[in-house]
Specification:
The chain is of the alpha+beta class and about 110 residues long. Helices cover about 20% and strands about 40% of the residues. The strands form 2 sheets. Strands 4, 5, 7, 8 and 9 form a 5-stranded antiparallel beta sheet that branches. A 4-stranded antiparallel beta sheet has the order 1-2-3-6, with no helix packed on it.
Length: about 110
């Protein structure tokens, strides 16, 4: 089959653009996420290796995040100063797979995928 040169160029351009969009348009695995229990929050950075936990309620209940890592281990990170400014944080050498935030004596958020 003999395809005219200008049609071949148009088809090649269209195929190339489609391939490039597929490579650049695919969803990224790295993204910032947050889990909430009331106003309390645990976050995972876009690289999945840095976490923060904030107690945002002055109610006397401590707050902690439970983080399940990609190597099959888990870590707990709390907010050491309660509802005062700042929070708790930690960095891990492997990524977080899933996590949730809990308020002691009250309950926990649902599981959040990192």
């Amino acid at each position: 089959m003999n395809i005219p040169k200008n049609l071949r160029l148009a088809l090649a351009s269209a195929i190339g653009a489609t391939l490039m969009l597929g490579a650049w348009g695919s969803p990224a695995h790295a993204h910032f996420t947050a889990a909430y229990h009331g106003s309390d929050v645990a976050t995972v950075s876009s690289g999945h290796t840095f976490v923060e936990v904030y107690d945002k309620e002055a109610d006397g209940n401590g707050v902690y995040g439970y983080f399940w890592l990609n190597d099959g281990t888990s870590r707990t990170v709390g907010d050491p100063n309660g509802s005062s400014a700042g929070g708790g944080s930690a960095g891990f050498s492997v990524g977080v797979d899933w996590y949730y935030v809990c308020e002691r004596n009250v309950g926990c958020s649902g599981v959040q995928q990192a």
